[in-house]
Structure formats: structure tokens, C-alpha cells
């Protein structure tokens, strides 16, 4: 067996810096594996002249990028999944790495939906995955998804929501896992055939919380969207469903992939801040449809979700209605800092005053004098101490997004 070579000086320096600055201990063997997979940067090699050899140097941000790769690999294990999570995070991966990762992702989905292989002579070669998949490709795909649902916080939330759905025949609660399996099987069959079952789409909107959240109202505000009839749902599924998403990813330029990735991150950040403000000021946890999106932003795998959920959906949606979707994305990006500032202001004031952000000037004026003085005594100094936050709250960069930002209590006071 050949003796393993000791790592070079630049590698030792990089590993030491990663441990000291980022708190991640990485071996030289791991670093080389990740470098070959394109997860970490390559060093710049400088030739020193005839007979003097060469030297190599890693970029200044290499320790942070190696640490990010270490966390992604630890969280997702498979290197192509880690690459997608790093891309979703905004790490500067090369195009061929991202393209290959997306191909592997969609190939994996295709294998889950494929029937079990048959061995020569007619014998069963066994399932492709640990579960005993049935021969129905759609049900096989659904069972593969169900296998991971119980192990995630998001999955457990979905199962809790599924328990609230009533069986139309008995009036009693549906068995949540049976309902989810049936719904996913029908949706998977639609993805394979290109034809959607509207009842399955409705069930999925219910168990994910989107249906209730999108129908929320607050006075004249809401709902986010009007209910779609069966034909509209089927058409929407065909235009932005799984096959349309895969095609949109393949056809997009790398610059467009990165641009939409950044927009997806804006949407997730906006949804998290908007939902926090709306739920604390109005009690509407669904935040007019942004609550379920905020759940993605709060999860540890939000970077992966940005890459494999939101980028494909947004690309497909842009192909369907480019101008309208671009306007919505621009609004999310514009109001992201406004709602992040409002959230921090809410943290600074007594919780009993949070409702004033929804009521606006009328709510402030209705306060007794001593209560108004108390509120001003808190908000005024906070705004003066945080001028950038004040600018974000007082001068939102987008159009009006509801009474929560039309006039902050500090401005009314």
C-alpha cells in the first residue's frame, strides 16, 4: 500500500484557520474530497520560475467556505445535496457543480418514482430503496416521501394539520398518514402523467396550511388569492408542477439560476419577518399565506429548500407569468428590511402595544395620555439609536403593504 502523503503547508494552514476561526475541524482527506466535488475553492497556483517549483494559496474566504461545506455535508451527507444547500445559501459554486447537483437531484426523484427492477428470468431483483415499494410508481414515490415525514419538524406539523381534516363519509377525522399517502400518491401520479387531480391539490393545500393561510382576512385586507376551480388548478399544476420545474431549471442560464436563488432567499427572509410581525400584531399566524413559507425559512434546511423548492417553483412561475411574478418578488425584496426593522422594534416595546401596529394612528390616539407617553418614551429613543431601522420603517421602499407599515406607532405618536 502506498504511503499517504502529508498535507502541504497551504492545506495545513487552511485546516488550522478553519478550526480556529470557524470552529470546524476538518481532515485533509475530507478537504480533498470536497475540493474534488467542487464544494470548496481550489488554491491559486503560482509558478516560481525554472527550478524553483510553485506555491499555492487559498482565497481569504476559504476557511468560511470550508466550514460551510462541513456543516452542509454533516446535515445532508450526500455531496450533491450538500452542493444544492450551499448554492441555496449563496456560496459561489461553479456552474458545472450546481448543474450536476440538480441533475442528480432529479435523477434521484425519478428513481423513487420508477417501478422495481425485474431480474433476468422474471425474478424480482428487489426494491431500489429500503422500503418494500409497491409496483405502482406513484405510490412508490409517495411512500419514499412519507418515510421522512415523521423525522422532520415540518413533517410532524403536516401530520397534525392532517388530523383536522374530516372524512367526508364518516364525518370523523381522517387517519393522517393514510390521507397524506393518498394525497401524495395522487400528486405523484399527476407529476408522472402531467394530469392533476384537483381534490389532491386541495388536500395538499389543507395539510400544508396554505389553504387556511391564503384565505385569511383582516378587515379589508385579504385574502391573498381567490379559490381556483378544478380546471384552473389542473392548468396551474401543469404549468408550474414538478415536470415544469425540472424543465425550467435545465433551461435557465446559470446567471438566471443565481438571480432567482437570490430572489428566493429574499422571499424566505421576507416571509419570516412579515409573519412574525403580522402574527404578533394581529394574531393571524398564517400571515395571509406567508406563514407556511416562513416555516421553511425557520427550518435548519432552509438553504436546501431555497435551492430545490423555491428556485424551481419561481423559475416555472416566471415562465408562466414573468411580469407579475417579478413585481411580487420585487415587493418582497423591498419590504424585507422594513418588516425586519418592525420586528426588532416590536422586541423593544411592551407586548401589550403590539396591536397598535395593525391599528395605526387611530389606535395610538385612542390610548390614555399616560399610556401614549409611555409608548413614546420607548419608541422615540429606540428610533434615534437605530437610524437605519427608522429609515426602513418610516420610508418603505415598496408600495403600501397593509396598515402594519402604512404608519408605525412611533410616527403617529
Q: Secondary-structure map with pairings?
A:
Blueprint: H1 9-22, H2 28-36, E1 44-47, E2 54-57, H3 62-76, H4 79-89, H5 95-112, H6 137-149, H7 153-162, H8 176-193, H9 198-207, H10 210-214, H11 230-240, H12 242-251, H13 254-282, H14 291-298, H15 302-320, H16 322-348, H17 356-359, H18 361-365, H19 369-385, H20 387-394, H21 403-406, H22 409-412
Helix pairs in contact: 1-3, 3-4, 4-5, 4-15, 6-8, 7-8, 8-9, 11-12, 12-15, 13-14, 13-15, 13-16, 15-16, 16-20
Features:
globular; 413 residues; single chain; 65% helix; two-stranded antiparallel ribbon; 22 helices; mainly alpha
Task: Report on the architecture of this protein.
Residues 115-134 and 398-413 have low confidence and may be disordered. Among the domains are: 9-41 and 60-97, no CATH class; 350-412, no CATH class. By secondary structure, the chain is an all-alpha fold. Helix 13 crosses helix 15 (302-320). It has 22 helices and 2 strands. It is 65% helix and 2% strand. The radius of gyration is 26 Å and the shape is globular. The protein has a two-stranded antiparallel ribbon. The chain has helices spanning 9-22, 28-36, 62-76, 79-89, 95-112, 137-149, 153-162, 176-193, 198-207, 210-214, 230-240, 242-251, 254-282, 291-298, 302-320, 322-348, 356-359, 361-365, 369-385, 387-394, 403-406, 409-412; strands at 44-47, 54-57.
